[in-house]
Amino acid sequence: MTRPVIIDCDPGHDDAMALLLALGDPRLDLLGVTTVAGNQTLEKTTRNAQKILALAGASDVPLAAGCERPLVGELTVAGDIHGESGLDGPDLDVPVAGTAGVHAVELMRRLIEGSPEPVTLIALGPLTNVALLLRLHPEAAARVRRIVFMGGSTDRGNTTPYGEFNIVTDPEAADIVLRSGLPITMVGLNVTHRALATTQIIEEFRALGTRLGTTCAELMTFFADAYRRNFGFEHPPVHDPVAVAYVLDPSVVRTVAAPVVVELGGTYTRGATVADLHHRSARPDNADVAVGLDVDAFWPMLIGAVRALGIPRTLVTSEDR
């Protein structure tokens, strides 16, 4: 039995890999994809999502663009990590299908209300679209099985000393989501930093012998160079697919229940996720927090999904819009 999911993302190299995992594993039914500004501008993240869907032979999956800026403040993109396009590295010159013609929040609402069973939302970028869905359409939110987001950390950050990029970009949206009362899983840097795309892993993608496998290898090679240049990492962490892997098989990602809040006002810590793993506060648990990753199960899952997608039988033939 497949599980219906919607992916909200800001592609982004690791978002692209997460989309391929969701598309290539038959245990998930990807109802739709929505985009948000984050790793790059909304126009670019939407274009990148279109390209990945086309490369995977999945341009029939509904796609809608959402918010072009956070709820509060201005957008700061991650061009130093993802490049000018947001997906620098491989040749992604493919014909793409158009978008659904509605705002991402409206597409989410329609897909959730039209699904015969509750839908899992997998959020891989800033949580702006998800927060607006919860505020504007509480009736749809009631039919959400779980929100699984890649973001935050139980220790260090990657944008500020304690702030992870997705949460720092829109702390107010993350605060709304974490206070929603819905079942939530936070997959943060403390775990995704264990999903390292080593040279061997990159070569395994290349060895698949398909255009998609080569594209993944080239995406990860660019990503590796960016992480080496910006953080001094020997190998890049592939964050977003870990959240998808959790939905596919919760045993791959170990979690613990804990109270989690977002720091909104700290001079040095705005956007930090404060996870009370030792329950020192009186706050109730509001999230399952990722604390471990079965790396040996994760990579075969991702590589297997890309292998299953293979070479798309046909790329879309509609005019490039």
UniProtKB/TrEMBL annotation:
It comes from the Bacteria. This is Nucleoside hydrolase. Keywords: Glycosidase, Hydrolase. PANTHER family: INOSINE-URIDINE PREFERRING NUCLEOSIDE HYDROLASE (PTHR12304), URIDINE NUCLEOSIDASE (PTHR12304:SF4). One of its GO terms (molecular function) is hydrolase activity. Residues 5-299 form the Inosine/uridine-preferring nucleoside hydrolase domain. InterPro entries: Inosine/uridine_hydrolase_dom, IUNH, Ribo_hydro-like.
